[in-house]
Amino acid sequence: MKRFKSVFEMIKKFNLFKGMAILSILLVAVSCHKVEKSPTTGQNYNDPKNGGFEVPRFIEQTTGPGLVLIEGGSFVMGQTMDNPAAEKDNFARRVTVQSFYMDRTEVRNIDYVEYLYWLGRVFGANYPQVYRKALPDTVVWREKLAYNEPMVEVYLRHPAYKNYPVVGVSWNQANDYCLWRTDRVNEMLLVKKGVLNYDTKQTDANNFNTDAYLAGQYVGDVKNSMPSLNPNNSTNSGKRGVRLEDGILLPKYRLPTEAEWEYAALGLIGNTKKGNVFQRRTYPWNGSQLRGDSKKDYGKFLANFKRGRGDYMGIADGLNDGAVIPTDVESFPPNDYNLYNMAGNVAEWVQDVYRPLSHLDVSDMNPFRGNIYQDKVLDAEGKLAIKDSLGRMRYKPVPDNTNRLNYRSANQVNYKDGDYASTIQTDWNVKPSNPNTTKLMYDSTSMVNDRSRVYKGGSWRDPAYYLSPATRRFLDEDQATDYIGFRCAMVRTGSSVPGQKKR
Asked: Does the pTM of the predicted model rise above 0.70?
């Protein structure tokens, strides 16, 4: 009996010692913790006694679902091989691209069908036109002198094609998908953080929209609100929703710019040594050959393309690339950024408006043509206008401002390409009675106009020339084909290099 008592007392002493050790560690940690102060005012951050200005610790941007970080840098953008058509729209020039994120693969049929399902579930009853507007043009498979009719019915929805890239999607539809994906990803981030419960009863205007949530016009099924340190926040009992400053919500998914897409496709990070690119690339892999030279891929084609006239897949029992039409989005080896099918399979939409001589005018950092600047609509009291019937915030072009240095009007698509401000003027503040007379008449002379959008890369229908990421083509933003798909991108916030110190 005494033996058991002594053991019991030993256990008590051990637990007491353990508890004191833990307590001492906590006390040391608390004593060593330095309260952050503003170097400007000297007041404490995150202190309700002096106003409750909240400064969360810096947290590196979360990588969104499906994305890969593309570390930015300088590269030579443009033509990398002989141009058989003698086109002069792609001269080589050095530019810099900021770090960003890009989808590992092309957007798949199953991804797009998920999008259609959500639209039908949320808007189908009262706004069926929203669902119809998003439907891909499945009849792009038809050809007047070919039998492709089965593809019209099965390619988008049959499970055999679920991991194949979606096609028949216009540039406008691709942009709508990107915005929808932004909202679904941010909604799930709030669910995972325990801020919201997932709400399957969302309909019409009552659906999670990132902009509307940040504006306080969507509340959702709240699980745990964020604590507010603002001493004046008495209406919500010291609670608030997530703000942009909390670093939880992600920036918008979008189409990549032409420069971003080309930079990511080349994957020159694999050819960099001591700050120099020791070998340029024609394709997303080294060399001028289209077959692999590694032990794993030796002799195999590295992309899905048209080898020659009438040869889309090769001979039975010895196929060139194993695919007569688009194939699985992970069918070929990824490039050095771990991106799949940046050559072949399907060409891909990018953000830019097409101009033959864009490279002569655009910036040498993050080059892009297509800016139309917008502001959120305000009501008569200067507050954000109520969201629209689909739950989205309202936007309008920014007003003209001739006193600005960096831009003067909302639409910069035609800057240095036929707009009035780019012509020789004696008085910049006087506009002609008909400003359109100074614009280039693209519509009457060619297919190039403000609706012409660039698409990049080769496809299953294209010869090897178009497998080079430098090649560029264009199509109207409302048109679609059976060989153009897309993938999403996202800006990288903060440091260009991952793994930076939190503060």
From this structure: yes
